Amino acid sequence: MNATGTSALGGERSALNAGRAGAEWAGPGVGRGPRRKFTWSALLWALVHPQRGHRIVPTLPGVLLIGLSVGIGTAAYNSSNNILFITLSLLLACLILSLVLAWLNLRGVAWRLRLAAPLRVGHEAVVALELRNQKGFLPTYGLWFELTARALEVGVRQRAESTITGRGIKVRAILAKADAAVTRGRLGLRTRLEPQGESRLEWGYKPEKRGRLRVELTCVASLFPFGFLKKEIGTALSAEAVVWPEAVAYQVQAVAAPRRQAGGPRMARAGTGGDLHALRRYAVGDSHRLIHWKASARTRTLLVRQFAAESAEGFSLWLRTDAAVWTRPEQFELLVSFCGTLAEDFFRAGRLTGVAIDGEAPVSVRRVHDVDAFLDRLATLRCAEGDGQTVMALGSSVERGEVRGRKNVMTFVPDGTRGVVALVGGERAASI
């Protein structure tokens, strides 16, 4: 069976993803209090002493222009030539005008991050950056935004370490490893942002590992208007989301193949069973044999019969994360992906009855939200540390209690050094 890459469980989103996908507006366009009255002294002070996180750096053409200004100024004072003084004043006016326009270009602009959840390993996620220009009559030009995406380690406590006693090669290796774990991207505003207008930029990012993901907007910069000065604003805007395990392809044996229960109950949804489920209006393509002529005559509208679907055999997934069993990290990752893919496929087929992890009580699966919550758990799942006998004892107690009372409990065991097998009653049901 080939697993589909995108989530086809419906339009609902998991609660954890929905709560972390958005962020509040931030930027110079977001006021932190009552708006102060404009004064020229405040403007000059803001240009001389910018806010924290704001930085103005001269570019290479700007450095050349400053050097040229110093040379022309020196020659003008030595020669007392009015033409040189006029040239010096024009160069300095160009620098000051560039500084003022760069400040006005970013003034009144606000931004926020959006993540299109749910995210999945190996499939491109869309990181949206929404922009808003709150200025009354001045547009905004030529902005670019630096983005970073990094995976957050779950259950790992970070501690500060000193690199004073470390060798240079070791320190560089540590910094290179930390930088390799971060994916960087850049978005540019190619068109102008009109006054009181909004825009949306999108960055495509493909997560490489499951878990929690943090996307940060690290910097907003602009070379407007002449490219002599680069205006930068450091931000602490971030958004978090959960990355679901990768959907994998697997093989199904006869035990897990869809089978109808003889004389079993009917499901309360439309299907091809023998019990009448409901009547509905005739649609183009419906078989004429399904028309209910008596009801159509009473209502003077063509009505067709809908029959209840016969219930197929359902499965309960029981995932055990004993570190003594799953000794290989790559095999454990395959187990998590395999379990998540089976949960989605069985739910689509109406054959998923419940899920359980280690010694926890089984959870019934009735809605899309239940499957999403299970995938959220799988996204941050780690091997159970400690004594393997304790984990097995907890599992045995659950099996004697609630899980054993259910039919078709599917468990997972390693298959060699790379594969994973799903067992139902000791028989192979699926493998990867």
What's a quick, concise take on this entry?
With 432 residues, the protein is of the alpha+beta class.
Brief descriptors of the model:
432 residues, seven-stranded mixed sheet, six-stranded mixed sheet, 3 domains, disordered N terminus, alpha+beta, Immunoglobulin-like
CATH topology of the largest domain: Immunoglobulin-like
Helix and strand element order:
HHEHHEEEEHEEEEEEHEEHEEHHEEE
CATH architecture of the largest domain: Sandwich
Strand order within the widest beta sheet: 10-18-17-16-13-14-15
> Helical segment tally?
9
Q: Biggest sheet, open or closed, and with what strands and sense?
A: 7 strands, mixed
Instruction: Using the alpha-carbon principal axes, give the shape.
Output: elongated
Q: What's the CATH class label of the largest domain?
A: Mainly Beta
Number of extended strands: 18
